[in-house]
Amino acid sequence: MAKRHKRKNLPAGRKKKGVAARSKARAAVYRSWPLIIALIVLSAIIIWAVYSMVGNTVSFVIVPGERAGDIKADTSENDLFNIYGRSNVRRRSINVGEGELRPGVVIYPEQPLKMAEVVWRDTANRDDPGRFQVSGNRSMWRLDNEISLGTALKELERLNGRPFQLAGFGWDYGGTVLSWSGGALERLSGNGGRIILRLREPAGADITDDERMSVQGDGRFSSGNPVMQKMNPVVYSIIVEFVSK
After folding, report:
1. Does residue 201 sit within a domain?
2. Of 4, 115, 134, 193, which has the fewest Cβ atoms less than 10 A away?
3. How many domains are contained in the chain?
C-alpha cells in the first residue's frame, strides 16, 4: 500500500502571515473598485462621444441644383432611414399650401432645429422626392451662402446685389420671392431644381397698421419698397423643388 504523507502543520506565525496576505489582497481589490468603475464610465463616455461625432456628420447644407443636405432627386424613403436612422424619419401628410396635403415624411420630428419635411412624387414606392421644406423661426438647415430661417430682407438684398420682387403678405403664399431681378441669387432658380424663399413680418416690427395693409395681398412688391425696408421681413420657409430623375 502507498504510504500516506502526513501534512505538516504550519507554525502559527506563518499561518498569521498567510491570513494577513489574503486580507491585504482583498483590501487591494476593494480599493481598486472605484478605479474600475471610473474606467467603465470613461469608456462609456468615449463611446458616446464617438457615436455623437458620427451622427454629426449628417449635412444640413442646401446646395442649389444639387441636394438638400444628403437628400437628392433620387433619394428614397429607405435611403432616408439609412441616412438619419429609422427612428428619426416618420411618415406624415405634409401641408404644401392652401390646405393641400401630400404623402411624405418628417425628418427629426422631435428636434425643431433639425426638423425638415420631404414630399414624394412616387407615393406608391415612396421615392422620387418632389420637394424638401423647412419652416419656422430658426433651423440648422441653411443654404451654402448661409441663408437660413430668420435671414432678413436687407441681408438678402446684400447677397443678391440689388432689390428683388416678392409677393404681398396675408395669404398662403404671402412673402414668396417671385424674382431675383437678375441678381446673384438668381442661381436659386437654376435648372437643377428651384429654391423658394418665403418671408414674413418679424415680431416687434415698428410699422403702423396702414403701412402693414399697404403690402398685403397677392400683388408684386419690390424689396426696396419703403414699407418693406422698414418692416425688414425675415425668411420663415425654405422650399427645395427637385427635378425628377
Report:
1. yes
2. 4
3. 1
